[in-house]
Amino acid sequence: MNVSLRALRYVVAAADCGNVTEAARQLNVSQPSISAAIAQTEADLGLQLFVRHHARGISLTSAGQRYVNEARHLLAHARDFAQTAEALGDSLRGEIALGCFLTIAPRFMPALLARFAEVQPGITVKLEEGDQREILDGILSGRLEIAVSYGYAVPEELSGELLIDLPPLLVVAADHPLAGKSVVSLKDVADEPFLLYDLPHTRDYFFSLFDAAGITPRIAYRSRSYELIRGLVGQKRGYTLHNASPRTTMAYDGSRVAVRPLKERLPPVKVMRLTLRRQPMRPAVEVFARFLSDAFSPGGMFAPGSIAPDMD
Q1: What residue stretches are annotated with the HTH lysR-type domain (predicted)?
Q2: Predicted TM-score (pTM) of this structure
């Protein structure tokens, strides 16, 4: 069968929007054009890509999901080819889709993206933040080509390279009695309210730390916003744990926290560079992957031992 890039774009847009009308609007084409491309593709393949829901749009079948995943990769390669053809003899160009875990992004991405733009001005990075489940789903679906995230629940389909280990740190209010100590024990706060950063897999990691220390936490608040958790700590509502701790001890609301290392030898989180194992990296993605490895290697901008947070 002959597959046109235009038809692939139409099918992928419909999958992303979940609605033919919205896909047509985004691509600035007629709705029948999108519908015809879907129908022709399904006829050529001999299978159904979408389930039509009356007045509720469309959704992918399992076969349709696999088809769209492959179509995303093919379209990305087509964009690279077009940009390379337009700039023969010029520096490497292209766009890459990068995913990053919510708490890792504000800690590392500003400096990484700024430096990468300096050394590779022809490559545009499209950044998407998410929790671990969203990051993994993004890579598996082809929406993301590379990601920086934790090593939680990484499926066999993904390839991971360790960038750095981040140990757990205790975060308390700036005037907490433990703030004056250089190192503390998790048992020191066993009877105090715990403020949980409540994301898939993240919460399981924190609970595993308490299990290892033989402590049952007294959970006072749960939130998907780490800055909200930090603000509550600054307002003396309890303590929390964190790994990718900000360089500042001031919360958004102006309150202050103190960050202290733990005596216990508790497992760190592993910050990983993740890609799809069976999908070769495009040149622009490969360049960024090497850049990440260099940035976290000895002598790099985030070399081990160089990223300790401000403690006071």
Answers
A1: 1-61
A2: 0.70
